[in-house]
Description:
By secondary structure, the chain is α+β, with helices and mostly antiparallel strands. The protein is 23% helix and 20% strand. It has a five-stranded antiparallel beta sheet, covered by helices on one side.
Amino acid sequence: RIGAVAPERAPCHGRPSALEKTIHGFTQKRGDIVIVPALGTSFDTLGEAYDFYNLYSWEKGFGIRYGKSRLNVESTKGMQETVCGCAGKAGVENSRACRCECPALIMLLRSKDNGWYIAEHHEHHSLHTSTSLSTTWADNTLAFTQAHRRLQQRLG
């Protein structure tokens, strides 16, 4: 394989996570959406950033997946996009694939301390939101996308 896995930033127990900061901010300035990706939001790991954006996408009604990534000069991952599950072009016309060139994404860049931060956020979601997603945490009877199933298992 080309590229090495760079060390992740070690979690600091005194430093609140991006999710904690966002929820605290929501209590100060109420709105419709609790989780809102803001430019400069910092994460210890890519997994933490993925879970954060997954919560946002769950509130907005769409699924996500990893998109493009880039290696830096040290051959470690320096950029990662997390995109709408429907991003990209369909390979074949009339296929069952749900690809509609949706622009919704966050682009994460590696910080100097081996963390990650949101460098770009495209909020516009081109599809109508999914009506099959649950509107409450307790409702497990509706269908979830694979990413949301993973989130539901982790919060469990």
